[in-house]
Amino acid sequence: PGNLPEVVRRPRSHHVINHIGHETKIMPEVSISPSETRPKGNRALQTGRRGRRPGEQQALDPRQQARVRRAILHKIPDQVALPGLVWTRPQVRQLIRDWFGVGLSLVTIGKYLRSWSLSPQKPVRRAYEQNPEAVTHWLEVQYPAIEARARKEKAIVLWLDQTGLRSDAAVGTTWAPVGQTPVVAKTGRDASAST
């Protein structure tokens, strides 16, 4: 402050500071000795950075964080007794509460997820009953035969799409490593009505 005497702003004498502090009631219980300030000059009077340093005093220790990250990467919520097929911040919060008894805000959950290099992404849906060998056989053997027959008969192969209602809800976003599209396993036996 500009109206304080120079001796208060820049301590020169331990005795003078204590006397002025006591008389003005500015800092009656604080004393600064010249030996504390002389080596650093005015820097001794400046405040340091406030608050927690990155990684300090986090609610989850590194081991707990690794366990939650593994669950998100290798399991779906249903496999850890939570509803749904995709990971959302509320589900991660519930998982942490169930496993470790720690309640965290959704903002904090989001910060943890991003610190683990995860981002919200729209997953690819793939039937877990799918047989990869059968799919490869169809793509490499059966479909080329269909194409050859169409060429021979001077026909074209049409791919049609349809509009319909399905018994499984559209999947929103889930958390996955940045740059890696997640795959959500689903049943291939869904009830549907098409038009």
Describe this structure in words.
A two-stranded antiparallel sheet has the order 1-4. Strands 2-5 form a two-stranded parallel sheet. It has a two-stranded antiparallel ribbon with strand order 3-6. It has 7 helices and 6 strands, in the order H-H-H-H-H-H-E-E-H-E-E-E-E. Mean pLDDT is 77; it is low at 6-11. The chain has helices spanning 6-9, 14-24, 34-37, 62-74, 89-100, 106-115, 132-152; strands at residues 118-121, 124-127, 164-166, 174-177, 183-186, 192-194. It is an alpha+beta fold and 195 residues long. The protein is elongated, with a radius of gyration of 33 Å.
End-to-end Cα distance, whole Å, is 77 Å
Number of contiguous helices: 7
Strand arrangement, major sheet: 1-4
For the sheet with most strands, the description reads: 2 strands, antiparallel
Classify the secondary structure makeup into a structural class: alpha+beta
Order of helices and strands: HHHHHHEEHEEEE
Gross morphology is elongated
Radius of gyration: 33 Å
pLDDT averaged residue by residue: 77
How many β-strand stretches?
6
Proportion of residues in helical segments: 25-40%
Uncertain regions spanning at least 5 consecutive residues: 6-11
Approximately what portion of the residues adopt beta-strand conformation?
5-15%
